[in-house]
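Session log. Operator J.P. requested a structure for one protein chain; no other inputs attached. Running the standard single-chain path with token output.
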Amino acid sequence: MLLLTLTAIYVQEANMFALWITFGFGILGYLFRRSDIQVLPFVIACILARPLEQTAREAFAATGGDPWFLFSSATSILFMIAAVASVMFLSRK
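Structure written below.
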């Protein structure tokens, strides 16, 4: 399976850098598995990072770089509190 994966990556990119990146993520995945760290949140973060960053840049450009627009309405404050509460609730053991 490893050989098939590396062959597919090399056919798509045709350089060794892509293979080294693949090995790096393989080692990272192995370390996550050995440490009992869930991989799914990292996969979701990698998928959603680019659109989230683009949206944040557009929002900050529209407000002139003012970060306080995030707290301008009751709904946004409620969502901020819910996000912080869920992170605190899920991070305790």
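Operator note: The radius of gyration is 20 Å.
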